[in-house]
Amino acid sequence: MNLDTFIGQKGVVATLKKALFQPFHAYIFEGEKGLGKKLLAMTFSKQLLCEKKIACDVCKSCRLFDALTHPDFKIIKRDEDRKEISVDAIREITKDISRGPIFANKKIYIIQEAEEMSTSAQNALLKTLEEPPEYALFILTCNNLERLLPTVISRSLVLSFKRYSASEISEILKSHGLEPRDYVLKLCRGNPKIALDFYDKEVQNKRDYIFEKLLSYDGASFSLIKEFENDFEKFKDDFAFLFETVIYFLRDALMFKKLSSVELITNTDKLEKVIEFSNRHTISHIYRLLQDFMMLEKYPDSNVISDNVLDMIFLKLSGG
User: Fold this and answer.
1) Where are the transmembrane segments (predicted)?
2) Phi, psi at residue 312, to the nearest 5°?
3) d(CA 53, CA 201)
């Protein structure tokens, strides 16, 4: 893959193409998770380091890059056992920069999810960004730009990643050997990672589980709700998926209830289940459930959702 074959993000790609022979010293790739920031950072880096500037896959630089052993390329990210990227990790970069490039005319550093740098780490990086060596190039990928220091942002070129069109998502799915499905294109919200996740067997099973639980809900069975709560462990690391799946299902049921039409339904692969649920409940009941889950979706972190909150939500589901 090179910049010519990268799918989507046309504005960002056009900017990077122009910079291949004279790049800026620091870029921030910002946007929501799953939009291909790391992939494009890797693609751009490989092409910059390539002897022919085309990501030829043949030259020594490309072969070293593909093996992740290129001495002029480093990836910095948060260690799994740490809460942030430490100042020591950034100081290691400073030491490495001082040695200069070995094979290429650039030394490239990708800092993944750069907003996870501690304040001291960002300040340490800032010193290098203020007076970088001519051969140094930084690419910071970032899901939340507001968490970066304004001084770091001001010394970088910020490139914002947008959501993809349905045709671009289809092209990405095909490039992974997957057949684009209507419900995936509707539910992924222009995010390739979300689209690809729908083809994961575990995700499919979780989705089916949620639908079956909703369909078996009769508005009064507290034992069923407690069963749902007891199985909530399935979603402890991905509350957003649970809430989004429920919300879109309830939205579909509400739309069908009001319009008796399937044209606006997003879960097209579960059409029979949506219709069955819609026929079983009143508009006001579906709307109330939708409001409850939309409220709960606002919790930014599953860790803040206490047992008491879960009890309250499931009690509401049971008609309490």
Assistant:
1) none
2) -65, -45
3) 39
